[in-house]
Design brief:
The chain has 164 residues and is α/β, with parallel strands linked by helices. Helices cover 39% and strands 15% of the residues.
């Protein structure tokens, strides 16, 4: 099973969009049994008394417009143990990578990357729609990254259509 954790600052916009976009792509490919996909925050800003806020309404709405539900998703924070529990920890921007390192320590196994590292836009960040207000562009960028990630996993033989 391939375990993917998407990471952003608050876990209410970008990382849940990525989580549910990849889950959707994986389901369309008939590969759901071969994946565990989740998302988490580097901060606790969206977590109050141990309960995370739901996905930010405009992020939820952009997913719904593309036929994807994120019902029940609430913000959670990355834990140090996530490094051992996931194969890929995929961040939305370089600030997320820096903050993630404070939680998990050094990336000795090369598990941490930016989502757009799987595209021709290697090294680029996914803009935070909390600040830009442009949820459509964020969704398109996330979808591009998720499609490229899935293609990467297929090309590396980590999972294949013949696995089904």
């Amino acid at each position: 099973m391939i375990k993917v954790l998407f990471v952003c600052h608050g876990n209410i916009c970008r990382s849940p969009i990525a989580e549910y976009a990849l889950k959707h792509l994986v389901a369309q490919a008939g590969l759901t049994p071969y994946f565990h996909i989740a998302s988490a925050a580097t901060s606790t800003e969206e977590i109050w008394n141990g309960v995370g806020n739901p996905v930010y309404p405009p992020a939820r709405d952009i997913l719904a417009r593309h036929g994807i539900s994120c019902a029940g998703k609430r913000a959670v924070q990355v834990r140090k143990s996530d490094y051992a529990n996931y194969d890929y920890l995929i961040c939305m921007d370089t600030h997320n990578i820096r903050n993630l390192a404070r939680i998990i320590g050094p990336d000795r196994e090369g598990k941490v990357s930016l989502l757009l590292d799987y595209t021709e836009r290697k090294g680029q960040s996914i803009a935070d729609p909390w600040y830009t207000g442009d949820f459509e562009t964020t969704y398109r960028d996330v979808l591009e990254g998720c499609q490229a990630l899935l293609n990467h996993l297929l090309s590396q033989g980590e999972v294949s259509y013949s696995s089904k």
